[in-house]
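Q: Sequence in, structure out?
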Amino acid sequence: MPDSSASRHYCARALNLREQLRLAWLQIFRGGGVEIVPNRDYACVMRVIALSTLKAFWQNNPGHADATEPVLAWYRHVVIADWATPADVKKQFRNASVLRDGRVVFNIAGNKYRLVVWINYAYRVVYIRFIGSHSEYDRIDVHTI
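A: Exactly. Output:
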């Protein structure tokens, strides 16, 4: 009979991580104020660099203020994801376009905005390369930005 202690240990760790994430997100909305970035007292699987690029997008242009919640929702999904291959990204975001060299294009806010990232799968790091409207996206070269 195979030893199931390893699977019990894995399940306990997964439940512990879920509970830590739940508590961290509860802390964000405590006190009436909303923090952009959660406290780092839990283990993230993916790192997003740089959140300041996303923040600047909606703060510097009042016309993009409607992107705040959808971008933060995307961010919350990414930091707890574990993407080892482009197929893992497609499992979680079916409308994402996986390009060559680790680049991925996400549709944000009901396809109103485009987010281009470069993912280093080995180190679990997501680099923000571009965020903008469709017209801004059409003016860039996705493979070189």
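The chain has five helices and five strands.
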